User: Fold these one by one.
Assistant:
Number 1:
Amino acid sequence: MKRKIINVLLPLPFNQTFQYLCNEDEKIELGDFILVPFKNKIVTGCIWENKSKLKKRLPKKKIRNIEKKLNFSPLNKNNRDFIVWVSDYTMNNLGATLKLCLSIKQIFVKKKIEKIKERFLDLSSDKHLLTKEQLNAKQYIFNKINNKKFSTIVIDGVAGSGKTEVYFEAINKCLIQRKQVLVLLPEISMTTQWFDRFKKRFKIDPLLWHSDIKVSEKIKIWKSVIDGNSNIIVGARSSLFLPFKNLGLIIIDEEHDQSFKQEEGVIYNARDMAVVRAKISNIPIILCSATISIETKLNILEKKYEVVKLKERYGEAGLPEVKIIDLVETPPEKGMWLSEEVHNELKKTIESGNQALFFLNRRGFAPYVFCNSCYKKILCQNCDVGLVYHKKIDNLICHHCGYKSSLENNKKNCKEFEKKCDLFLYGPGVEKIYEEIKKKDKNLNIEILTSDVMQKKGQGETILRKFEREEINVIIGTQILAKGHHFPKLTLVVVVDADFGFIGGDLRAAEKTFQLLTQVSGRSGRSKLPGKVLIQSAMSDNLILKKIKEFDLNGFFLEELNIRKESGLPPFKKLCSLMLVSKNEKKLNDFCRKMKVNIEQSNEFEVLGPAPPFISYVRGKHRKRFIVRCSRNKNIQKFVSIWLKKLQIPFDLKISIDIDPYNFS
């Protein structure tokens, strides 16, 4: 039987296709999935355009045969084009990017796959009461959906203005048209209220896609998506790479959220890649936030994105009163971290039958542990960071590598005084605030909600449900409490330490802090009950805090844009971070010097570094960083690619490339 040569892309770290043989009469088209031998394994491949750099084909006798064609719908052109675009933009191998689409190893090796029950939604005919603002926003978005063309629409609305209800209307319209809809949420595990609202609106649960979903369920969802059966997928950033057959709308809720940025492997920003995916598919995309990102704000000003505004809270709710408490003028009692005014307001709140939220972005009991004799900080053995004391488990923990140690084990001989270190704890964590509030009133029902709690299955959701049912008076937590929760009896929000976000020299510190504190403040007074926000700060005249107090989002963003423009920072300039990591510090430094020598001199590209990041030693490895900066219209990927091609990278040294970096720690 005659054989023909086909080109196959494998989900492996290669930037080329591989040649295989199949029967000449076998019906195989681009995007089809096949099983092929590779080295001593059988792997899944996808029929692809010829990306091989071989000048001429291998003789047929040296080419291996495919195992078999898999009985799935092919990966359509929109999906393939998206994979190519992401690969080129992020400077990752094409195969590594394909792997994001084929992230379930078991999906192709099961002999029999149960067909997922098709979820046709029982579309509700109920009249959903919308405000005039919401109706105008709905109609504007409907017009864009009817155009059946690419457009980026931003729903820019204050906290509690009903942004979700507006995009629910858009979802409903697409589902009536039997189109697939993708909704990206930043923290799936923290959005129980969102799912409650969805089920109430559509009378059914959406399909979920995130890391905690069972593999068996993922297999069903993957096949259903590529066959075009599933109507709506709600997921984390990885759901963006699902092989949609009939995608009609993408929605990015909380588009400003940092968790949309993938920091390992193929490094990408799911929000930005979603806009590209929508453009390739020629469909609308909705970005939604109460505190839009700087990049989105600039795109609106430059008329690249369209915007609908929701300026008023839904129903009788008004914006909360915000007060900044100057900790320099009115410091807390010695050994305490909450001012007397905070304690008084909390007492009034509880006595009136309402609830309070305390926000502090520090897990554990005390973030700093020192020796009382030599004043040296107790550091992690694997990282260049201090250990954090967690009183609940009586352990010191590194929040970067997970290293644990007891207080007693760290009472080593103090070099200064030849005796055991006398350790003392400094600074407040959420556990310390819990203890302080509890001392004032032992009868309060208080819970802590952090990522540590969320790792325990169902525990975080249980706490939120209890708070919703008013079984808890006070909730204390980190930034996960800033998400879009709605608690009618929550009238007091306390920001324990507003200054913490400015530590570390992050170029996005102002934006991140403003967004976080504004989002937290927005949890207060979301019903007809008036809300109050108390912000503790030792820098009460800080301009950012003043903008938060006035809820002047537009003023902050315009001022921040001016600062970024004058400083030559994103979004006016393009950045690329090259992080070099190695266990061998000397080898790392030597290679950095070699890289610096091989930089191609250019007036269009500026290379900064090498320099250690804010944390230079993590998980037993040393780190150095280069930053490349250029104008937005320049091809930074090409410059970096030419630079790296001059170098032979040692096997025990890794370079991670991050286009448009967010994290500088």
Note: The first strand starts at residue 3 and ends at 9.
Number 2:
Amino acid sequence: MIKKNKYTNALIGETSPYLLQHAHNPVNWYPWSETTLEKARAENKLLLISIGYSACHWCHVMEKESFEDPEVAKIMNANFVCVKVDREERPDIDQVYMSAVQLMNQRGGWPLNCVALPNGKPFWGGTYFRKEDWKMQILGLSNIYKKDLNRAVEFAERLTVGIQQVENIGLNINPAIFTYEDLDSMVSSWSEKFDNVEGGVEGAPKFPMPNAYSFLLKYGHLANNTRILNHVKLTLDKMAFGGIYDQIGGGFARYSVDDFWKVPHFEKMLYDNGQMASLYSEAYLKFKNPLYKEIVFETLEFVERELMAENGAFYSALDADSEGEEGKFYVWNENELRLYIGDEFEIFKDYYNINKKGFWENGNYILLKKKNKKEISKKHNISVSALEEKIHMWKIILIHQRKKRTSPGLDDKSLTSWNGIMLKGYVDAYMAFANEKHLEIALKNANFIANTQMQEDGRLCHSYKDGHSTINAYLEDYAFLSTAFIRLYEATFNEIWLSKADQLVLYSLENFYDKNSGMFYFTSKLDPK
């Protein structure tokens, strides 16, 4: 029986999974467009701009509490033109309103909610609000606009100037002189915040920051700085052992909510896993730690299994939630583990910490490691190779059992920039381990992008879904894809990839470069200002 939806709004015609999640809200949502902005101007209504992404846990919470509530929707529809934005599709719009919220509140995040004048200039914003607080805020803002218009306009103008000042960077006319002393000074200051017990930066939450650790790895190697290299190795080891890494299915979650990598915010993003594949591949070349090879192979197996389409495109993300509960797909209770693992449970329990260390909440455990294979094998009087066989079988068993669960929501749009990051991850893995399958997948993805997202003149599309390429690409698309194509040339010596990278850079110089500042705009000259 087909479910009939009581409400349907203008988002029903969009391709973004995030926007489609809101297509049956009682709120009269519109997508960001010139038509929507013209509607606000014509009706002289405030814009209520709500920005998020499909894997965002608190976006789902606010939708359930407020945007699915007819009473709240009535207030929103009567007083605002309501606009939903997928920050992954429109990072340009997200950046403007994120800057506004950060200027107002000194912090930001998602869901990102802004109220703006009909011309788009913001004068109020915040992140997640509980239902009653949200109603009070938006009613108050509507009253200010109706009764004290000058106050709203004055604040919006001041805030707009602030955003422009944040974004505007002048031409640096100083000579470009860089020395190792500059790097040493920067890293020395940075290292004061290192957590040299658990890895990463001190405090919580903990983000993997793969780009930062790739830099530190190269710096430590070239400067022969043992202290920095030890910190990098500690961090990589701790992340690989922690709950932030999916010990059964491979792949990394976005971040851990604590300061020792235990409890992840369970969303899995393509761009994180692409960068982590590159980082652990580079680290293997330096440290030759077999754990790092294991992490790379399992992460790429996860991507192939859950984030790759038949045509070679990579999907964007997996949700943190399933069946309305964060992490439900990934955690286990002791009874089901005893049932599935059987006679080997005591070794399993020790290896994956089905104890106080691994306990999370509601009787559930997050699988994580504290001891390496040698320590476990010695304690249980078995060989390392025998333990590895057991671990392999445990993973097969538990992946099979997880398949019976309701999977987290999949954001199945393919973003060119993120595909470029993942493509480079596959090539970096091939360069480190010479596994032909990694190169085959890299070439399949590269051909998909070149044949589908890239036009003859070098112009790119940002997003692809269901056979449709949409949205004129941003600077990030050209940057990440040209980098990946150059890396693919280094792996294959096929000059077609070098030629395509050259084409992308030439197009960027023509359409993004600002001669006055010597820098590049995020959006092309073909896009609205």
Note: The CA atoms of residues 144 and 151 lie 8 Å apart.
Number 3:
Amino acid sequence: VVGRNGCGKTTLLKLIAGEVDLLKRDSDEDIFIAKSGNPEIGYLKQIAFEDPTLSVDEEIRKVFRPFLLMQERMEELLQKMNVDQKNTEDPTLYEREIKEYTTLQEEFESIGGYYYEKEYDTMFRQFGFSTEDKYRPLNEFSGGQQTKIAFIKLLLSKPDILLLDEPTNHLDISTIEWLEDYLKNYKKAVVIVSHDRMFLDKVVDVVYEIEYKMTKRYPGNYTKFMETKRLNYEKQKKDYELQQKEIARLETLVERFKGKPTKVSMARSKQKAIEHMDLIEAPDRFDTRTFHANFKPNRETGKEVLRVDNLEIGYDKMLATIRMELRRGQRIGIIGGNGIGKSTFLKTLVGLIPPLGGGYSFGYQVDVGYFDQQMAQYQSNKTVLDEFWDEYPTLDQTEVRSALGAFMFTQEEVFKTVDMLSGGEKVRLALCKIFKTKPNFLILDEPTNHMDIVGKESLETMLKEFPGSVLFVSHDRYFVNQIADSLLVFEDDSVTYLPYRYDEYVERKNGTYAASVDQGIFRAKQAELEAQKKTVEVKAEAPVQKGKESYEMGKERSRLEKKVKRLEQQINKLESAIESKKEELLLPEHASNYTKLEEISAEIEEKEMELLEVMEDWENTEQELAALLENM
């Protein structure tokens, strides 16, 4: 389920889970949520462990109770069968016990009873916990860690319908990749609300979009959804424009010929054609209202922006040693697991944490703009207007409102207090304040957290157009792939600089890079050969022989009347062809064949243009004939 922040995605999940009730409308409309049978619904709610003094292991093992009960019953049956095998008083008892045991064993196997311990251990490690963490009490873990524990418990419970609201938030890339594989192989239903485009691409097979308070279904993953939405929009826009042209053409004919006795029936038929049309509505534009800021830095840096020499980072112990250079215009993305130093590195560079060893230096005229992910949790009882104005007191009100307006704080929104803002709104306010300083080097720590997809795309556009340099941390692989031209990869025992993009990093890691390069070379060579084969044929047109310019009146009249008749036949033929093509558009076999739909739409447009030309020729000929008849 995708859509803008605040459109109702999370509310929809709560409705399905039964956490909130449907509002009753004052109408006869039947509004309901139907569930087949009595499915078990799993939803990651606000953390509320009944007993926070329990160990993690004790809490998680609550979900294994059905497995344990089945195991106990199977062991009980085995003992009984050993005794009842020789029971001569009731020989059918042994058979009944075998049947029950066999049924239980099959069910136990089907729900993963023989490997739940292994699955538990794997999942626990993938979410960044150690074996020792299992035996620590819940209240020793941070809020974020408790969310992960609740998530593990939910996944292991294997509900019939798994509801996930932003499941990749605060997970590192390796954990997200593991979760993708897990959900792809999940044998029951999954409903996901997410702004993680790559995650959606790899996991989902249907997308529901909430836009303009309406929900629409799109088969396929996120990329397919966007392509289908674009094609649907373009097709509806084209159909709408063609129909408006056709209505205008018919109305012109009706107006022109309704007063002419010989053309009254024609005018009436065209009027009826207008009245019987199924009107096509103009398509809604994509809901792309978002922030924008085409800013340029106050000044340009030297060629070298940042040099890091054996910089040791950490708090009480060293997390990593880093060596790297960043040149003017470079965009380096930092990726890696949680807790191994990525954010610590950025905090060290901006002076919030002292280095443990080594050093770093900025180049000539470097002005840093720093975004910290904690800015999304910033609290203040000031209004948005005052919060920004206090930072830039020399600006007048028009300049302040203009700057805030560029980041979607308009009209009454500037009088909200900062405490009232959502996480995404706080991110926008923080970015607005940073960009107003016009830095030439942006250091960003998880800037896309709390942003909806349109917000992420807007930030991507801004950073692509930004003429300065960027160093950023992100777990959003799509965002990293769009922005970073090189990577700094943090692993447990090393930090490695890679001079290429994220998609190439994945290909090299998976061993598919060489094959993709070979395929690219092959395609380029193939295209080159195809281009060589193409030749342009120029056909000489025979010069048009001009007939005599003076004709007798009778012959001229006969010629014009024949031409009018021929053009009317041509008009009827083209109108029939257009109607036939429009009917073809509605055929069920073309419903999801967007290439075919585009092809048919193009043919309709071509025939519409041809019809307009023929109509114009017909009108001109009619006028010629009318003028001739007046002079006869």
Note: Residues 535-547 have pLDDT under 50 and may be disordered.
